[in-house]
């Protein structure tokens, strides 16, 4: 039986999920839209391709996937700075967008 490998959606993607918006060597964190139930290279790709804006994930969701090895992880694991499976580093500047991708406050989670 073949193991399911999640698809990465985005614009101008390379094999590791880098897109036309974010394409540094470390831009390999792929994010889960809670509404679409899909992984996108970034919120800008998502918002261009979808009829709605990106919907942030709960802290317990497998909200991040490593584009290099396709390992899925929680926000806490992602915040360790590298993939726990293949050890490739994530771009630390991506944390600037945490409020777009992740629901941090428990009240936010309950209202979604």
Automatic annotation (TrEMBL):
What residue stretches are annotated with the CHY-type domain?
12-88
Superkingdom of this protein's organism: Bacteria
Q: Which UniProt keywords apply?
A: Metal-binding, Zinc, Zinc-finger
Residue ranges crossing the lipid bilayer per the database entry: none
The record's listing under InterPro entries reads:
UCP017292, Znf_CHY, Znf_CHY_sf
Q: Mind telling me what this protein is named?
A: CHY-type domain-containing protein
